[in-house]
Write a structure and sequence with these properties.
Pfam families: Prenyltrans (PF00432). With 364 residues, the protein is mainly alpha-helical. It has a two-stranded antiparallel ribbon. Helix 6 runs parallel beside helix 8 and helix 12 runs parallel beside helix 14.
């Protein structure tokens, strides 16, 4: 007669040995699987990085500096009246790339101050009429170099206050053109110099909201077509005045994320070609309304990098087009918003490096 207790021990021992054997096999398989996945991920990331390319920072720096030296070519002549804006674009791009120290600070600051008029506003170049566009750029350039003490804040404030209209809108200059761009500029500039309370903010916000459309976007005036550039200005102004609760974030976010096309680039309105500059206008707006995760970050980075002139530097509107300082700035700024490695972070509302904004508002 068989001893059942002994048989049970034998069977259990046998089962345990089998289970232990299979456990070792399973562990070995899982280890191999982990190694395979890790290797595949590393290979994929290496391939991804290769396809994405890289920002040729040194060449962009050389390109920006060369633009200033070429004062007699066609590009410089046609941009003469926009030189203050160009200075802001180029210098901010340099700062984002950590290369602002290559510039002669005193020379730039002296030139900026020579563009100011008795009215308090700044012109686009020496001898040019003042305009609110150039006034903001001048203030931003001085902020980059920590030269805010040179600004006569009351004088600049009086100039901007004088441009606000009865309905809350702002004119760009004495000739009276009205545009939501000017509303943003007035609010941004006065905020930077700590004088935002000197205008009628309530009316300014009310006017901006009157430019909101059924698609969630904003136009340049009431009833104007929604456009990414105008949306940035309106959303930026509302952000700086603490009024973002007046924006339909989901509706606007949907309109903005629809701006991304197959190439990964962004356009300014439906059925238009992508353009690097919208990497700023669209992205900053999406960030301010917390909907930036609705677009493909990787595809947009690749699009911007594909627009570089990798031999001479500079960034163009689209791949293989001619580069200019405007698109170079917005390309770099867009990459900064996308947290591209090696670039300083930029504030989406003030359009200045975050460390500069912190210095403006928290400097003791």
């Amino acid at each position: 007669m068989v001893n059942c207790r002994c048989l049970t021990k034998v069977v259990c021992g046998f089962d345990f040995a089998i289970l232990l054997h299979f456990a070792f096999l399973a562990a070995s398989f899982l280890l191999r699987l982990v190694v395979m996945v890790t290797v595949c991920n590393v290979s994929f990331m290496a391939m991804f990085t290769f396809k994405m390319g890289e920002l040729v920072t040194d060449k962009h720096v050389k390109y920006i500096l060369s633009v200033e030296k070429r004062k007699d070519d066609f590009e410089s002549v046609v941009m003469e009246h926009l030189r203050m804006n160009g200075a802001y674009w180029g210098l901010t791009a340099l700062d984002l790339m950590g290369k602002l120290d290559v510039v002669d600070v005193n020379e730039v600051v002296s030139w900026v101050m020579s563009c100011q008029h008795d009215s308090g506003g700044f012109g686009g170049n020496v001898g040019h009429d003042p305009h609110i566009l150039y006034t903001l750029s001048a203030v931003q350039v001085l902020a980059l170099f920590d030269k805010m003490d040179l600004i006569d804040a009351d004088k600049v404030t009086n100039y901007i206050v004088g441009l606000q209209n009865e309905d809350g809108s702002f004119s760009g200059d004495m000739w009276g053109e009205v545009d939501t761009r000017f509303s943003y500029i007035a609010i941004c500039c006065l905020s930077i110099i700590h004088r935002l309370d000197k205008i009628n903010v309530e009316k300014a916000v009310k006017y901006i909201i009157s430019c909101k459309n059924m698609d969630g976007g904003f136009g340049c005036t009431p009833g104007g077509e929604s456009h990414a550039g105008q949306i940035f200005c309106c959303v930026g102004a509302l952000a700086l005045t603490g009024s973002l609760d007046l924006v339909n974030k989901d509706l606007l976010g949907w309109w903005l994320c629809e701006r991304q096309v197959k190439s990964g680039g962004l356009n300014g309105r439906p059925e238009k070609l992508p353009d690097v500059c919208y990497s700023w206008w669209v992205l900053s707006s999406l960030i301010m309304i917390d909907r930036v995760h609705w677009i493909s970050r990787e595809k947009l980075i690749k699009f911007i990098l594909d627009c570089q002139d990798k031999e001479k530097g500079g960034i163009s509107d689209r791949p293989d087009d001619a580069v200019d300082v405007f698109h170079t700035y917005f390309g770099v700024a867009g990459l900064s918003l996308l947290e591209y490695p090696g670039l300083k972070p930029i504030d989406p509302a003030y359009a200045l490096p975050v460390d500069v904004v912190n210095r403006i508002f928290f400097k003791k």
